Amino acid sequence: MAEDGYQPPPERNWKMPLSIFFKDARLVFKMDALGLEILQIAFPAALALAADPIASLIDTAFIGSLGPVELAAVGVSIAIFHQASKVTILPLVSITTSFVAEEETVGRISNELLKVENLEKGSPKSIEMEELKHLMAEEDFETTVYNSSIVTSSNPNKAKFESKKRHIPSASTALVVASVLGLLQTIFLISLAKPILGFMGVKSGSPMLTPALRYLTLRSLGAPAVLLSLAMQGVFRGFKDTKSPLYATVAGDVLNIILDPILIFSCHLGISGAAIAHVLSQYLMSIILLCQLMKKVDLLPPSIKDLQFSRFLKKGFLLLVRVIAVTFCVTLAASKAARLGPTPMAAFQICLQVWMTSSLLADGLAVAGQAILACAFAEKDYAKATAAASRVLQMGFVLGLGLAVVVGLGLQFGSGIFSKDKDVLYFISIGVPFVAATQPINSIAFVFDGVNFGASDFAYSAFSMVTVAIVSIASLLLLTKSYGFVGIWFALTIYMVLRMFAGIWRMGTGTGPWRFLRGRLFSTLVSVS
Predict the structure, then answer these.
(1) Nearest Cα to 99, choosing from 173, 29, 154?
(2) Entry pTM
(3) Are 319 and 90 in contact (CB under 8 A)?
(4) pLDDT tens profile 449-470
(5) How far is the C-alpha of 57 from the C-alpha of 45, rounded, in Å?
(6) How many CA atoms, within 13 angstroms, populate the side-chain half-sphere of residue 340?
(7) Mean pLDDT, to the nearest integer, of 154-161?
(8) Closest Cα partner for 49 from 331, 292, 246?
(9) 265: burial class by Cβ within 10 Å (0-12, 13-18, 19+)?
(10) Counting beta carbons within 10 angstroms of the beta carbon of residue 133, is it exposed (0 to 12), middle (13 to 18) or buried (19 or more)?
(11) Which residue ranges make up each domain of the chain?
(12) What's the CA gap between 245 and 363, in Å, rounded?
């Protein structure tokens, strides 16, 4: 019998459980307990995730009125800033969400065990603690129990569960790491802004250099706020609370939208005004989130030893590799577009913003999948893990189909909002079919990210993405050289198809954390349900 409670069938009975993706597909719109739980997490998360790119789209619209050179310069700067931010914070956010969700689950089960102990008025039963211990990996058991706010004295019978304000070391650790990384990112981008822009194709003689340098330098001052707010969003997601980040994000973006026309036009600051507005909105967002988080969590650890730096570094390195691979492809694509000149770069910036904004709506489902799956795997509830993974993937596909129609029509007929330049509009029309057609692919790929993170499958996520990136970069270099602007979008399409396939392969073959899908007993249970 395997440690996690199931026994693999003989090899001759092994089958690839690809049918799991179609399990209960007719229930994709059913508002049962699982459907409601997914939507309650996913909908606010999707709005929060989409709010910032929408604000960036509004920035793009305002800046586009200044001219194609300014728009292209801001596009390159935003690509650099997003690359740096994703490399530093996305691993931290993903790990924090999973760690907090696991700690909450183990804390709840621990509380139930302690109640049983008090009712029996006896010493703790070893079998109860062994059951709890198996909920987490052996190496993380002691840390997780402490994280869950179980405070033990010399007498185990005096254990108490803090039901109000909790101390969760993963939350405290995330904020410390985010603060340090934010400061380092600011120093790095400001000191190396010109060489980085040169690498992106904005050379000394380019008309984009001065405005790009100005925008990137000012935008970098907001890096600490950006990283802190994203880290806190990871904590809230672990609590399955996506409403608090939504309120903070909307407040920050509303401020950004209000300040944009004032600083850009009324104060005659141009793109500097756009950067200042964005920075101020990020600091407002982080302050709101911090105030909300302090009501739920005691963020000051008893000592530095209680912080989980080694645990974060162990998993964070894997995700760091993955994020570098993911973002490098998009950043390289932006660099190739910049080398084609200001007009193609301006069009690419508009198409990319729409592409990412619409696709990120699927990240709401990814957040829901990660939080629910992390809890289900901690409880060893494989039936719920399977049902939740199937449901969010099916929802993601349906969402992608809807986005393909909306984005295709919207960008085709509404591109004039972003630019009046005829040449820019021509290049946008070339990118529209790619942006629209890839929406279902993007949605499934992004949802698979949440599914893999919820299953703590960080190693596979990292190594598979490196493979995807290698193939995608080769395609980008080859196709751009041969087909220019069209080649860039062909390469990005290949990149997203490979990301989707990597997710399908892991779960569809029943390997890694999904090996329970190969069990005869579980297969029978799934088919009956």
Answers:
(1) 173
(2) 0.72
(3) yes
(4) 999 999 989 889 999 999 999 9
(5) 19
(6) 25
(7) 40
(8) 246
(9) middle
(10) middle
(11) 34-108+166-528, 109-161
(12) 14
